[in-house]
Design a protein that fits this description.
Blueprint lengths: L2 H11 L8 H4 L13 H7 L4 H13 L6 H15 L4 H12 L7 H8 L1 H14 L3
Helix pairs in contact: 4-5, 4-6, 4-8, 5-7, 6-8
């Protein structure tokens, strides 16, 4: 992992950790793809329309060139507006797909730190593994 990426992780997690080891254990999703998804979060946040919304979001992310945190945010908010749904309909499934959990630093920080290609791959995997 690059020093630059590590500094971004530290900044994103700073308020969420008390001990150095928590920079590893509390945010494994920055270092490896989720192999499973938190059951409580799936039950609470993964709805019948989540796959459809997540696919649409992935299509939008695919078009981004070297996206910044703000690019991810703008894209998600624009799509929610177009679909006439609340941000949560996109944010919660996206967080679950990329991190396997329902908590953590801001989603747009996570997306930026992971990078477009990794985000797209994680969404693809989640769409295969999570209920349709």
């Amino acid at each position: 992992i690059s020093d630059e990426r590590l500094l971004l992780i530290i900044e994103a997690m700073r308020e969420r950790v008390s001990f150095v080891k928590e920079f590893i254990y509390n945010c494994k999703y920055f270092y490896e793809r989720p192999t499973e998804y938190d059951e409580k979060t799936v039950k609470k946040r993964w709805k019948e329309d989540s796959p459809k919304f997540l696919k649409a979001l992935a299509e939008r992310f695919e078009k981004l060139e070297n996206p910044t945190k703000e690019d991810f945010e703008h894209t998600l908010k624009s799509l929610a507006e177009e679909l006439e749904v609340g941000l949560g309909k996109l944010i919660h499934p996206a967080r679950l797909a990329v991190s396997g959990t329902g908590a953590g630093p801001g989603l747009f920080d996570v997306l930026f730190i992971l990078g477009k290609e990794e985000v797209l791959e994680r969404i693809k995997i989640a769409l295969e593994k999570l209920p349709n």
